[in-house]
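Shapes recur. Our protein:

. . .
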Amino acid sequence: MRDLFIADAHLLAPQDANYRRLLEFLRAQRGRTRTLVLLGDIFEFWIGYRYCVFSAYVPLLEALHELREAGARIVYVEGNHDFHLGPYFAETLGCDILPDGGIIELDGQKIHISHGDLIDPADRGYRLLRRFLRSRFLRLLAANLPPDWAWAIARWAGNLSRRSYSPRPRREAPLQLLEEHARRHFASGCQAVVTGHFHAPVRRDFDGKVMIALGDWIDQYSYAVFADGEFSLAEFSTES
């Protein structure tokens, strides 16, 4: 059994190529995955209503439910597109939700996981925006927004985002920030640090400890595997 780490799929419509590929990947993991760690921005947009979910995301939710039924644990770290996950993930799917990331333990190793949007302490503007978006006021506002309105806003924003994105040489991750972030958690006793957010796969080793930055599931189909006490980066298109 192995543990998998995925981030930044930005799913919007079931007919999209990355959505179809992620479903294919998840269905292939049933019975062979101990833990699935979702490191944020799996959805282009998510609001956790109590009694309904967005119909476009039902295929993914079913795939996650099938993984849970097969015995996998699901850990979900909220990103900057999918916070306020709500009762479906916590109660129906039984996910362990870590809004700001945290430490999980696998085979005796402490692994710090986060989306990655908070690793730059100098980005005060984003931190203020993030605090507002996750505030109790906005949580109540979102809970009272009709789902059709919320989805229409999400589609509009998502289409703008998609038009601005085109396949290109992979972005460079901010290595200095990532390494400083990793070293802080190594100093506190972690053996590994895994982040998403930057859409650029990176692995660095530090005296027996490892830092992983995940790529995305927009066109890279990147993920990390923890098996037999070791981390590796992989791409779905190249997995045998």
Notes: Residues 2-165+172-238 form a domain with the Purple Acid Phosphatase; chain A, domain 2 fold (CATH 3.60.21.10).
